[in-house]
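can u pls check wat happens w/ cytidine-5'-triphosphate
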Amino acid sequence: MGRFDGKRVVLGVTGSISCFKAAQLCSTLVQTGADVDVILTAAAREFLTPLTFQSLTRRPVYTSLYDVLPDLSSAHVALGAQADVLLICPASATTLARLAHGSAEDMLSCTALASKAPLVIAPAMNVNMWEHPATRANVALLRERGAIQVGPVVGHLAEGISAMGRLAPLEDVLAATRLALGRRPAWEGRRVVVTAGGTQEPLDPVRYIGNRSSGKMGYAIAEAARDRGARVSLIAGPTALPHPWGVEVRLAPTAREMLDAVLAACDGADALIMAAAVADYRPAGVAEHKIKKTGVGLELRLVQNPDIVATVHATYGDRLVKVGFAAESQDVLAEAGRKLDAKGLHLICANDVTEPGSGFGTDTNRVTLIGRNGWREDLPVMAKEAVADRILDRVEQLFS
Ligand code: CTP
């Protein structure tokens, strides 16, 4: 998960029973670098005390429209003006109605009205309240004005039933907040295809030939592209990673399934980033039943898989920006340069998998970015999220 260093988050907490989760959210935001100013509505105060949030943020907590900041400026105006993002979690039906109609009758709704910061709403309520046409209309209006909505989801509600109305998982709320903070004009309306993970080529109903890719690099790129405001299709081999919020995920276990999915997704896309470790070979045939031990060795015949990114280049040419990866264990830069040319790439991210802190399964990577016409940038060992950002900085330059 990314960090929020230096970001000022106004966290509005309203009176839904799920508001106890806002304390955890607040703690995570603080731990990941954000300065968090908390506003509690009157209904939220029935469930939680200001002291909870004051202890987590070590800052004053605001509850009244007439609160003032330490410098005596009016909190409802000053907080909104200083905020990088206004995050309302959970957002009750009442607060959504106030926001939709500009009814500035309490500290939170007044701050929202007085702020130009992007708004994130995480609704949580009873299923009938959520489905009521009034709530639907209020949420639609807020979205039309640019609010980012995260959840609700189907799940256990306080009434003891499973239904729509449960607060979105906190990781999703944090992802929506990152999107609100990260949107950039160069990515508006862009469609980006990202592949991740390793393919698995079946031998029989039980076994496959695979590789050690964890998918972390590709998932980090998909999330970073989402944060910039792109519409992201993530096409992934089997991984243990959770589906990122706000990203369309399609699973493609084999190289040939990945090829079909990538070719379809690239039609009209602005960029393809091929972080997947695609198996170069697959078994010539898949046994119908589990292959049995016979007491002698087993010879496998393998046939070559299609090259996905080279096929995209042959199909769409330079209509989209194509980025590849070259995970090598020797002659790293020469091999990467050769692949850049052979596959029609605009950019290749080369890394030496034998180096510490680089390659499969790690949270960090050290890559050299190589572009056309000898362009090159050596990056130090960085978290995969930071590497993703540097790759996207280059893609953004290639867009223009
Ligand atoms: N790639 C691909 N389709 C394949 C194999 C690789 O699209 N069948 C992509 C990878 O996703 C990566 C780039 O091509 O972005 C380079 O992958 P790599 O495995 O390093 O290259 P290969 O062409 O397979 O070369 P070699 O195995 O000889 O190193």
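Residues 255, 274, 276, 278, 280, 305, 307-309, 324-327, 339, 343 surround cytidine-5'-triphosphate (CB under 6 Å).
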